[in-house]
Inverse folding.
């Protein structure tokens, strides 16, 4: 079974753009899938940029 890492981002778009390098590093080192819990538009953007594997809206 593959590991799943959950990243929760309650902030706005500018905050998450600054976090992209950290999310990419987390995805590369954690192994498995990286799931993001964030606003719908932020999750969709990071999925489109291939920063996260899956996004959950909240």
């Amino acid at each position: 079974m593959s590991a799943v890492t959950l990243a929760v981002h309650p902030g706005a778009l500018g905050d998450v753009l600054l976090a992209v390098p950290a999310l990419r590093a987390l995805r590369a080192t954690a192994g498995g899938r990286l799931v993001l819990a964030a606003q719908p538009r932020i999750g969709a953007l990071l999925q489109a940029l291939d920063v996260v594997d899956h996004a959950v809206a909240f």
Remarks:
- The chain has a mean pLDDT of 94.
- Helices lie at 13-30, 40-48.
- The first strand starts at residue 4 and ends at 8.
- Residues 13-30 form the longest helix (18 residues).
